Recover the amino acids of this structure.
DNA sequence: TAGGTAAATGCTCGCAGTGAGTATAAAGTT
DNA sequence: AACTTTATACTCACTGCGAGCATTTACCTA
């Protein structure tokens, strides 16, 4: 379940004959496969991703250290890497010194325009990894950065993010109004309302990806139009990332939020023993919304996701809380164990 | 949402320098990218997938028509195919004559051993597509085959499938008992109980993939050990497919079942107008379980997923039912519209 | 040592959703 | 006219969950 096994099939040695098709793509240009990792940890009630600052070669061979945050990534070694996952682990170890635990494949990107230099076709396979935050080193100047640096509109824990009313809502309104026909305008308005919970809609924490894509389409994130005068915009609508890395981060957060409610993934991010409040804070950090304390306790306890250790926490003040641990047996008992999230939120 | 757009990002032209790594995989063997399609339709209350019977070249260049059912697939044309999805659509059109509508990417497989001939590295990107069943033609001898031909243990509509108690449960029991140590045996038993809802566990319709993988690991599907004397086994535990195609089908069914409950995907499989019972039958066919009629109606109606057309059905006998259509406006109103599935089932 | 503070832990109430069953309506068939 | 078949409507009990309030347990300070 949470394991890292991916036992795989060896097929019989047959090849499908490209059924009398056109010239046949066998002679086409070489394909390069990139592996990207979104590595998530939570510390200080802040969800973070591991980024690097690699050396880059700009179009005209000028070498410098990039100022943008990259996702750890590298090319698949088609001979040396037995599996895609192993290739990813190898690159992450090399660039950040981190040995990954939980990994899951996210998505494969392969549009022709993603190609770096126009020579070879570039495919990218993105992975989501969960880790407990540790010190990082390695050849990529790795650093843990708060994920809401890149997606500031996603953090509703202290209420509706200011950036929405200040920048996003007006920006998207203009974009919708700029549609070439009334029907386009109306479709755009719908899309805006659904994604950001404006109008009569409610905010759905899970629509992370469609929100980012909407902002991209509307030209409200720096990646959409990399011109100098949009630095201001970049600031207010989150930090940019190179290529499509920020979209991959959005996809990861969406996947993670979705998974929270039906698989016990949170525990990959917590130490062996933790208080219920700590658990709650991690869930809140990832889902981006505050939760009702007693109800959260009730939920977690009666779902038997955790068991008491008997140990107590040693807090700076207040009554010490009991330490709990994840009850792995839950996997054998309940069909879809996870932390169900409510629709609305207090706090 | 249900659209087929996948607008994508053009990044700035920078290349990550493979940070002083080893030899660098740029000079490795060429990588070939395959695209596989699991195309699902429902007719006669039976979920079906579109398969082909291509000509194949066996290891020693003997040409014949394969007796196994293949998924429509083909290689990515790294120059001609602008996006992966377009490449897939092209191949499906060629092999089956079908123009696909709803498509979503499933998973990318890339273990080294999947390679056909050991020369070039083979990567496969699998897609799930939904279609209304139509006549198919084209160069691949296409045919719609019931999906439960390949996964017979997944259909619980008329009660617990006989194959489970007859073949699967005993077979998995033996496999678990054959573990090399008590802890391995116990872990295997756990895995069996979770996947198939044996012991105290309940059947979880969504664990399609782990069930197939378990059967594979236990050697209970023909793909696991392609020896002649297992033809019997093959019959009883479902029809085999080449390579990892059956696993891909399992992954598709899992994805589809999961998605039913929070996205209105069923309507991709139904005609414009349909009766509520027809809708229910399709959901049952896919989820593999019977549903309570009145409760299903109530659910669908009060979720406002459908609206009345005013038209009536013309059934061979019994009272004619009203025809409904999908209310696209739900997408604007509810955060996660779908057909919630109950835990247990009558019938 | 008593009182105050901060946090953990426990309890209750009311509403909405859902499982299960029953009753009635509308068509065709015998 | 009685019967069959299917659609449609309604009821009722139970569970889960949102929300708020009450109590307990530690440490700190006067």
């Amino acid at each position: 379940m949470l394991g890292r096994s991916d036992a795989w099939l060896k097929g019989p040695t047959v090849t499908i004959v490209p059924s009398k098709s056109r010239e046949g793509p066998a002679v086409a240009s070489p394909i390069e496969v990139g592996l990207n990792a979104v590595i998530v940890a939570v510390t200080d009630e802040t969800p973070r991703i591991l980024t690097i600052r690699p050396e880059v070669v700009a179009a005209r061979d000028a070498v410098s250290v990039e100022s943008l945050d990259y996702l750890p990534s590298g090319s698949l070694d088609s001979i040396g890497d037995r599996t895609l996952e192993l290739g990813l682990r190898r690159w992450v170890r090399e660039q950040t010194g981190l040995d990954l635990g939980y990994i899951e494949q996210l998505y494969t990107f392969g549009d022709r325009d993603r190609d770096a230099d126009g020579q070879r076709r570039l495919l990218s396979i993105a992975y989501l990894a969960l880790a407990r935050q540790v010190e990082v080193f390695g050849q990529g100047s790795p650093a843990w950065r708060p994920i809401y640096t890149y997606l500031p509109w996603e953090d509703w824990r202290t209420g509706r993010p200011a950036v929405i009313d200040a920048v996003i809502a007006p920006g998207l309104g203009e974009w919708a109004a700029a549609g070439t026909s009334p029907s386009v305008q109306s479709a755009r308005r719908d899309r805006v309302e659904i994604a950001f919970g404006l109008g009569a809609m409610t905010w759905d924490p899970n629509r992370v990806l469609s929100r980012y894509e909407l902002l991209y389409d509307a030209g409200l994130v720096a990646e959409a139009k990399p011109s100098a005068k949009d630095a201001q915009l970049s600031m207010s609508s989150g930090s940019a990332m190179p290529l499509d890395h920020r979209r991959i981060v959005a996809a990861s957060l969406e996947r993670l939020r979705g998974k929270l409610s039906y698989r016990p993934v949170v525990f990959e991010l917590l130490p062996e023993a933790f208080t219920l409040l700590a658990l709650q804070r991690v869930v809140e950090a990832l889902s981006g919304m505050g939760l009702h304390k007693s109800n959260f306790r009730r939920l977690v306890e009666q779902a038997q996701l955790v068991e008491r250790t008997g140990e107590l926490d040693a807090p700076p003040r207040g009554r010490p809380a009991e330490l709990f641990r994840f009850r792995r047996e839950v996997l054998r008992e309940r069909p879809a164990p996870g932390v169900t999230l409510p629709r609305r939120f207090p706090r």
Observations:
- Chain B has a mean pLDDT of 82.
- Chain B touches chain A through 90 residues (CB under 8 Å).
- Residues 162-177 of chain B form the longest helix (16 residues).
